[in-house]
Amino acid sequence: MTDPELSARKASIGYGRRLVVDGLDLQIPPARFTALLGPNGSGKSTILRSLAGLQPLHAGAILLDGKAIASLPTKSVARRIGFLAQGATAPEGMTVLDLVRQGRYPHRTVFGGWNKADTAAVEQALALTSTGHLRHHKLDTLSGGQRQRAWIAMTLAQQGGILLLDEPTTYLDLAHQIDLLELARDLIQTQGTTVVAVLHDLNQAARYADHLVLLKDGRIHSSGTPTATLTAPAIAEVFGVEVAILTDPETGTPLCLPRKSRTTRKPM
């Protein structure tokens, strides 16, 4: 059995002396959509940053094609992994085309000029995200959904094959949330892209993701298919909320209907 493209082995991750994630073992299925789920502070974004090679480890390793990311040159990692941070910003006045061209940085050499491969990669990224008609528009004039698509186009221009998204649907209205998640599914089906995203909406994760990782206090509570992972007992343990699990009539995936919180709250 070959190593998965991206994995964590006994990874302990934190900030300074504060440990957020301890002894993480995680395998990311290639060419699938993995959603990281859990309450605030459970380590979702920290894990995602570590998978991108952006967060130093206290112990263990993040492996890319079986090799420790920490031992690989930064550009070589960037040629395989595209990372989109939550609330990413660009310089004022930057156009969509300018932004997407930035995705070719990992492939550039000190003395190498812009070439046909760079142009082809940028055009493909614009086409895949349906942003070609926006190429000369400034980012700060676009809607939230359009900006997210432009940023994803930038990461696709890297042609890495692995796309890490930190809360990509935050601040988007429902229509744009669905649009972005359908784009992720399309990239998996047509390009074989591996997608890992931090999500908050359990029902959206169940509908669009293939593999769910449920986190609590920096550890994996459970993982697997939506049906296996999103159970009423698991959600009660992780989120402190009692739910009824129904079946989505369109997809057959779990549909979580909150009933009440187990958390005792003070009167307002």
Automatic annotation (TrEMBL):
Gene3D superfamilies recorded: P-loop containing nucleotide triphosphate hydrolases
PANTHER family named in the record: IRON(3+)-HYDROXAMATE IMPORT ATP-BINDING PROTEIN FHUC (PTHR42771)
One Pfam assignment: ABC_tran
GO molecular function annotations of the record: ATP binding; ATP hydrolysis activity
Record keywords: ATP-binding, Cell membrane, Ion transport, Iron, Iron transport, Membrane, Nucleotide-binding, Transport
GO biological process, any: iron ion transport
InterPro entries registered for this protein in UniProt: AAA+_ATPase, ABC_transporter-like_ATP-bd, ABC_transporter-like_CS, P-loop_NTPase, Siderophore_ABC-ATPase
ABC transporter domain ranges (all copies): 1-242
Full protein name: ATP-binding cassette domain-containing protein
Taxonomic source organism: Paracoccus shanxieyensis
